Amino acid sequence: MAFKINSKIKGYSVVDEDDDKAVLDRASEAEPARIDVVQMHESLERPETLVGSTYKIKSPLFEHALYVTINDIVLNEGTIYEQRRPFEIFINSKNMDHFQWIVALTRILSAVFRKGGDVTFLVEEMKAVFDPRGGYFKAGGIYMPSIVAEIGGVIERHMKTIGLIQDPELDASTLALIAEKRAAYEAAMRAAPVPPASGDTAANESEASGFPPGATLCAKCNTQALVLLDGCQTCLNCGYSKCG
Ligand SMILES: [Zn+2]
């Protein structure tokens, strides 16, 4: 440890080895007691009570709504190492057609949650699953390739809420660029309005999603927000542009 001496030195004595050790011992005593950090592990016992959230999924592929419940365990509560992690997942529905694979999926997901380590990879794996019968559009113009992908989306939302996934916010310059492109597109539309292709439905759809009618699906953010601007496909949601 270094000290800056600001006053005059009036005397000194040489420290021998034993004194040095004594100083070190005192320093280690002063250190706060080490905390035993609990990590997520499969042998971790389930507490009697867990906190959680339930999300509702309504899909045109399912007659009845799905209710997804994710319960969390709080590790190292009250310390600087406090962490909330998903511990188990349940999915309930009136619909029994898909009962067996839903039970299998939730049991495996819960087992992976309890194994510990990084479990955020599950989100990407699930969101990449597509239904060969075709997906569907959600409110906001977001394309869902399958019901599994939508369950993955719910897990992602939950992990963002508990702070396990950091949301990469669009930076200010990208947001400004999107706003600029959108204004340019809307100005061009006013100058030469294109009649909606299928009457009222198209207009209603665009109102629900907040993107212009006739916008197509963006491959980058899976949102129906791609418009033709100056001869170039441009996404009004994430800023993606085919021309770079
Ligand atoms: Zn996009």
Automatic annotation (TrEMBL):
<keyword id="KW-0237">DNA synthesis</keyword>
<feature type="domain" description="TSCPD">
    <location>
        <begin position="46"/>
        <end position="159"/>
    </location>
</feature>
<comment type="similarity">
    <text>Belongs to the ribonucleoside diphosphate reductase class-2 family.</text>
</comment>
<dbReference type="InterPro" id="IPR024434">
    <property type="entry name" value="TSCPD_dom"/>
</dbReference>
<dbReference type="GO" id="GO:0000166">
    <property type="term" value="F:nucleotide binding"/>
</dbReference>
<dbReference type="Pfam" id="PF12637">
    <property type="entry name" value="TSCPD"/>
</dbReference>
<keyword id="KW-0547">Nucleotide-binding</keyword>
<dbReference type="GO" id="GO:0004748">
    <property type="term" value="F:ribonucleoside-diphosphate reductase activity, thioredoxin disulfide as acceptor"/>
</dbReference>
<protein>
    <recommendedName>
        <fullName>ribonucleoside-diphosphate reductase</fullName>
        <ecNumber>1.17.4.1</ecNumber>
    </recommendedName>
</protein>
<dbReference type="GO" id="GO:0071897">
    <property type="term" value="P:DNA biosynthetic process"/>
</dbReference>
